[in-house]
Amino acid sequence: MRRAASTSMHNLQELVNPGPGGTMLDRIAQLEAEEARGTSVDQSERVVIVCNSLPLKMRHDPEGSEERGHSWHFEMDPDSIYAQTSVGILEKTSAEKVLWIGGLGSEVELFEQDAVAEDLRDRFSCVPVFLGAELKDKHYKGFCKGFLWPLMHYVLPMSPQSAGRYNKVNWQGYLAANKRFADKVVEHLSPDYDFVWVHDYHLMLLPTFLRKRYNTVRCGYFLHCPFPSSEIFKTFPNRDLVLRGLLNADVVGFHTFDYARHFLSCT
Predict the structure, then answer these.
(1) d(CA 139, CA 143)
(2) What is the rounded distance in angstroms from the CA atom of residue 128 to the CA atom of residue 115?
(3) How far is residue 139's CA from residue 144's CA, in Å, rounded to a whole number?
(4) What pLDDT, on the 0 to 100 scale, is given for residue 43?
(5) Do 28 and 15 form a contact (C-beta atoms < 8 A)?
(6) Inter-CA distances, 54 with 45, 102, 175, 222, 227, Å
(7) What's the pLDDT at 9?
(8) Closest Cα to residue 53, out of 146, 127, 113?
(9) 221 and 198 in contact (C-beta within 8 Å)?
């Protein structure tokens, strides 16, 4: 703090008395140029793709741990729809870069997570979100696959003993996982230059969390499954929060016009 104050006082003195052969305006221009060089940011447009699973294949490979700093082997998955979208983004839009943020298929031990995150960012432009086994199970198996996927496909529980009934604990896991994803997006987001593209029913609350942090964030959402009719969707106890999540995106995409119409009838 003392050094910063001393530097500011020195600059002020130079402005008042710029010395021989210089004017105050010349010195102001010089200081502005020095400040711009010291705080340069990447102003290229970038699309941040947020998905439940990164477009990567991974397998345990302890033999390569010395070289990589962790015991996992990664490679891009050419069959992943999230990887395929980058081709159209880079060729058909003004975006110059793509960054993927998402989960991994296997659990990574805590002591390896930093090394894995750095490796994936440097080699694949991927940022992993580590949920942990318990939260991942509640979010994905418990709520997404156990309740939300059947609901979206018109499969409702037939009795209190049927699978696929609403579970408040799993809903809390879904909420916590979406918040964890949002924290990771915010950590890497440049709101003035990035466009965030959220994918599928695993992350329907994410636009709300992003909008609360950055009101002007550019955010799109695409649903990769049917959106049910209002008669089915109204059986979902937390439907208002999910609808608000989608409405906090600037653009919402669906597979068909019917799915879009169902969404509009719910709102």
Answers:
(1) 5
(2) 11
(3) 6
(4) 59
(5) yes
(6) 21, 5, 20, 16, 24
(7) 45
(8) 127
(9) yes
* Pair of tokens at residue 232: 């089915």
- Measured between alpha carbons, how far is 220 from 89 in angstroms, rounded to an integer? 13
> For residue 79, what are the contacts with CB-CB under 8 A and spacing of at least 6?
none
- Give the whole-angstrom CA distance, residue 57 versus residue 193: 29
Q: Do 82 and 199 contact (CB within 8 A), yes or no? A: yes
Mode of pairing for the β-strands spanning 56-60 and 72-76: antiparallel
| Full 3-state SS string of the chain | CHHHHHHHHHHHHHHHCCCCCCCHHHHHHHHHHHHHHHCCCCCCCEEEEEEEECCEEEEECHHHHHHHCCCEEEEECCCCHHHHHHHHHHHHCCCCEEEEEEECCCCCCHHHHHHHHHHHHHHHCEEECCCCHHHHHHHHHHHHHHHHHHHHCCCCCCCCCCCCCCCHHHHHHHHHHHHHHHHHHHHHCCCCCEEEEEECHHHCCHHHHHHHHCCCCEEEEECCCCCCCHHHHCCCCCHHHHHHHHHCCCEEECCCHHHHHHHHHHC
> Among all chains, which residue has been given the structure tokens 């999910």?
242
Positions in the chain whose pLDDT score sits under 50: 1-12, 15, 38-41
Strands 126-128 and 97-103 turn out to be parallel
What residues contact residue 110 under an 8 Å CB cut-off, 6+ apart?
none
Rounded to an integer, what distance in angstroms lies between the CA atom of residue 221 and that of residue 71? 34
Quote the CA–CA distance of 219 and 207 in Å, as a whole number.
7
Distance between CA atoms of 1 and 7, rounded to whole angstroms? 10
